[in-house]
Each structure stands twice: as C-alpha cells, then as structure tokens.
C-alpha cells in the first residue's frame, strides 16, 4: 500500500511540474501584453525629458504645443513668459566685465548655470502634471537656444517657422502686442526676419538631432507626415518604446 501511495504521489508531483512548466511562459507573455504601454525601461530617460518649442509669435507654436500635448507621454504646458526673460538676464552676464567679476567670486560658470537650470526646470515641472517628456512653449526662448543647450545639453528644440507676411498679418489682425509701442508693417517684417534668422543660425549649429525646424504651412497641409518626423526626433531617441509610438502616431521605428 505504501509503495502504491508513493507511486501516485510521484506521478502527481511530475504532473504538477509539467503543468507549471507549460503555464509559466504563458503567464510571462500575458504579463508583457497587459503591461502599461506608457512605462518604458530606460534608466536614462530623465536626461532627455525636456523639449523646448519656440519661434516667432503667431508662427504655429501653439498648434505644435497642442499636437504634442495630446500624446500620453508628453506634457506641453502653457507659456511661462518668465523663461525668455531669465535667459535674457543670463545672456547679460556673458559680458567680459560681468563674467570676470563672477569668475573671481567663484560663481561662473558652474554655480550660475546650475542655478538658472534648476529654476527653469522647476518652472517647467510645476506648469502641469508630471510626464516622461516635459515640453515648454515660450516663443522667444529659442532666441537664446545656445544658452539653453548649455543649461540642458540633452534637451530637444522645435523651431516653428511661418511665412513672414502671414505672421505680420496675424499679429496686426489679432492685435498682439510685442513691444511698448505698436510696430508698422515694415518694422514687424524686419523684426520677424531678424529673430527668425537668429534662431535658424543657432538651430543649424546644434544640428538636426537636437534642433528641428518645422514649417507651419507644411505641418497644416501634411500633419501626419510631419508629426511622424517630429516624434521620431523627440521621442524615439529618448525611450525604448518604438512599438507604442508607432501605434499612437503611425511613426516609423528606424527614424
């Protein structure tokens, strides 16, 4: 009787082992399929979590901000207005006399840059809900793109460009106030040209992997194609989630 009982116990143990052997891979596959798609396995994602959107006002910066903000992994908040002013003040510290004084005080560049970077990052983080990719849209912030790239070496930049005639017409029609006094049509065109070329020059220096120029007219006419390229540049190089991004915005994986 004992021999028979031991035999059946052994058969049951073997059967249980076989069931476990067959079910374990199935459980793993089910867990992978049910895993939340917005969670990515990349320990370095915080280093690439900032995206700055800019360009001349009325060039489509709000449009691209909204299109990015609908992505579940991107949070693109409203304008802070403060960041361009902070960058302007930081630029004033780049003069020879100011720099010499700050170097003697052991504040430049490490302490100054770290303080400005922490302040700007805090503004972006507190402008809305947390997200893997934090986006800031301040049109004139890209005028100081070189400084921003020094503060955030791994940040991405999106430069919106629109036909200057349409920009000026929109500014005048909407009564957008960009200065203390109202500019004439010619003054608006001159200012648009100067700011746009200044941003484009800095964007060319940083290169296409860091800064991407998006034309408003092309974005409106071919939104799907342009969003593929934008998300490929901004997101694919940040996270290991090509499949999720492809499903969401029809992006190609090897962008």
UniProtKB/TrEMBL annotation:
Keyword Hydrolase part of the UniProt annotation: no
Swiss-Prot/TrEMBL catalytic activity: L-tyrosyl-[protein] + 3'-phosphoadenylyl sulfate = O-sulfo-L-tyrosine-[protein] + adenosine 3',5'-bisphosphate + H(+)
EC number, as in UniProt: 2.8.2.20
One MF term in the entry's GO annotations: protein-tyrosine sulfotransferase activity
InterPro entries: P-loop_NTPase, TPST-like
Task performed by this protein: Catalyzes the O-sulfation of tyrosine residues within acidic motifs of polypeptides, using 3'-phosphoadenylyl sulfate (PAPS) as cosubstrate.
Record PANTHER family: PROTEIN-TYROSINE SULFOTRANSFERASE, PROTEIN-TYROSINE SULFOTRANSFERASE 2
Family according to the record: Belongs to the protein sulfotransferase family.
Protein name from the UniProt record: Protein-tyrosine sulfotransferase
Organism: Paragonimus heterotremus
Source species taxonomy: Eukaryota, Metazoa, Spiralia, Lophotrochozoa, Platyhelminthes
């Amino acid at each position: 009787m004992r021999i028979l009982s031991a035999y059946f116990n052994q058969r049951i143990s073997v059967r249980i082992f076989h069931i476990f052997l067959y079910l374990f891979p199935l459980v793993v596959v089910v867990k992978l399929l049910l895993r939340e798609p917005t969670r990515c396995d990349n320990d370095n994602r915080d280093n690439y979590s900032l995206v700055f959107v800019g360009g001349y006002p009325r060039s489509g910066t709000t449009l691209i901000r909204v299109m990015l903000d609908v992505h579940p992994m991107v949070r693109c908040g409203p304008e802070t207005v403060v960041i361009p002013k902070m960058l302007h003040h930081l630029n004033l510290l780049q003069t020879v006399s100011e720099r010499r004084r700050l170097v003697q005080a052991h504040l430049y560049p490490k302490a100054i840059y770290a303080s400005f970077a922490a302040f700007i990052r805090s503004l972006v983080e507190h402008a809305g809900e947390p997200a893997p990719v934090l986006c800031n849209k301040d049109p004139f912030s890209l005028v100081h793109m070189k400084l921003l790239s020094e503060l955030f070496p791994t940040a991405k930049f999106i430069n919106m460009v629109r036909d200057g005639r349409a920009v000026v017409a929109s500014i005048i029609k909407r009564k957008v106030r960009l200065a203390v006094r109202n500019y004439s049509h010619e003054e608006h065109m001159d200012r648009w040209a100067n700011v746009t070329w200044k941003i484009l020059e800095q964007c060319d220096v940083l290169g296409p992997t860091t800064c991407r120029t998006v034309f408003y007219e092309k974005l409106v006419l071919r939104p799907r194609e342009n969003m593929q390229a934008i998300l490929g540049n901004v997101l694919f190089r940040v996270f290991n989630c090509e499949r999720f991004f492809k499903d969401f915005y029809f992006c190609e994986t090897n962008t």
